[in-house]
Amino acid sequence: MDLKDRADNGNEVTRVLKVQNKMGIHARPAAMIVRIANKYESVEVWVEKDSDQINGKSIMGLMMLAAGQGSELKFIATGDKAPDLLNELEELFSRKFEEA
């Protein structure tokens, strides 16, 4: 399902997060994002960068965004627990994916 095709259920929450770690969104950070997203089975999450849009529960999709340091990613989540998911992701981004 494409973001443009989904129904607006009024539960949509968005947040723009900036990639701060030196190596950007490579395999390990992508896996960390997906691990958090999958904890929220009832939440649908999409990620936008420039004109690209991917499912936020897809490791390959996240890596294909080629989001380097300084990139801004817009997370769009729908569902009752969407704010919780985005709060966890914001914390992960602020910790620079635990990278030095």
From TrEMBL:
GO process annotations (BP): phosphoenolpyruvate-dependent sugar phosphotransferase system
Protein's UniProt keywords contain Cytoplasm: yes
SUPFAM superfamilies per the UniProt record, alphabetical: HPr-like
Subcellular location: Cytoplasm
Any one cellular-component term (Gene Ontology): cytoplasm
InterPro entries in UniProt: HPr, HPr-like, HPr-like_sf, PTS_HPr_His_P_site
Similarity section: Belongs to the HPr family.
Name recorded for this polypeptide: HPr family phosphocarrier protein
